[in-house]
C-alpha cells in the first residue's frame, strides 16, 4: 500500500487580470487533493460573478479555475487557493487589488514622465553652467598667458645729473 502524500500547490498556478475579469488557476498534486477558494478571506459562493471549475486529471492531480467577473465592483484585493487532504494542506495567496488599476497606471506614467523631464532639465541646466564656467576659466587662462608672454614695456626711469653733462661739454 502507498503512503499518502500531502498536497503541494504547483508553481504553474497563476492569475490573469483584466479590467472586467480575473481568471486564476490553482494546480495541486497529492493523495486525493481537495481544493477550496477564499475571496478576501471569505469562502467562495458560486454566483453569476464568481465561477469555480474543478478539473481532476487523476487521483493525485487537481486543477481548479476561479473566474471573477467585474472584480472592481467587489473591491477585490486577494484570492487564496487552499488545497488539503487527509495528511496535510497547502495554500497560495494571489494579490489582485482591482480598484481602478488603469487610473493608477496613468497617474504612475504621468508621475514618471514628469520626474524624468524634470531630471533631464536639471541635467541640461548643470551642463550649461559647467560649460560656461569652463569657457570663463579658459578665457582667464588665455589672458594670463598673454600677459606672461608680453614683456613689461615700461622702462626704468633714468636720472641723469644734467650739471655734470654741461660741464663735460
TrEMBL record:
This one is known as Ig-like domain-containing protein
The portions of this protein that span the membrane are 107-132
Q: Which UniProt keywords apply?
A: Membrane, Transmembrane, Transmembrane helix
| Presence of the UniProt keyword Ribonucleoprotein in the record | no
For this protein, the record's SUPFAM superfamilies field holds: Immunoglobulin
Organism field: Ilyodon furcidens
Which InterPro entries does the protein's record reference?
A: Ig-like_dom_sf, Ig-like_fold
Gene3D superfamilies of this UniProt entry?
A: Immunoglobulins
Q: Does the keyword Transmembrane helix apply?
A: yes
Biological classification of the source: Eukaryota, Metazoa, Chordata, Craniata, Vertebrata
Amino acid at each position: 500500500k502507498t503512503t499518502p502524500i500531502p498536497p503541494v500547490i504547483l508553481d504553474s498556478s497563476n492569475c490573469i487580470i483584466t479590467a472586467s475579469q480575473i481568471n486564476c488557476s490553482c494546480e495541486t498534486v497529492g493523495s486525493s487533493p481537495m481544493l477550496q477558494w477564499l475571496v478576501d478571506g471569505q469562502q467562495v459562493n458560486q454566483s453569476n460573478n464568481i465561477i469555480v471549475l474543478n478539473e481532476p486529471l487523476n487521483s493525485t492531480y487537481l486543477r481548479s479555475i476561479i473566474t471573477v467577473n467585474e472584480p472592481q465592483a467587489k473591491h477585490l484585493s486577494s484570492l487564496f487557493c487552499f488545497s488539503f487532504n487527509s495528511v496535510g494542506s497547502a495554500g497560495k495567496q494571489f494579490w489582485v487589488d482591482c480598484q481602478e488599476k488603469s487610473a493608477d497606471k496613468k497617474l504612475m506614467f504621468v508621475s514618471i514622465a514628469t520626474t524624468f523631464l524634470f531630471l533631464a532639465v536639471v541635467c541640461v541646466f548643470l551642463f550649461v553652467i559647467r560649460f560656461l564656467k569652463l569657457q570663463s576659466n579658459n578665457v582667464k587662462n588665455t589672458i594670463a598667458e598673454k600677459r606672461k608672454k608680453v614683456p613689461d614695456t615700461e622702462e626704468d626711469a633714468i636720472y641723469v645729473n644734467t650739471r655734470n653733462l654741461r660741464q663735460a661739454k
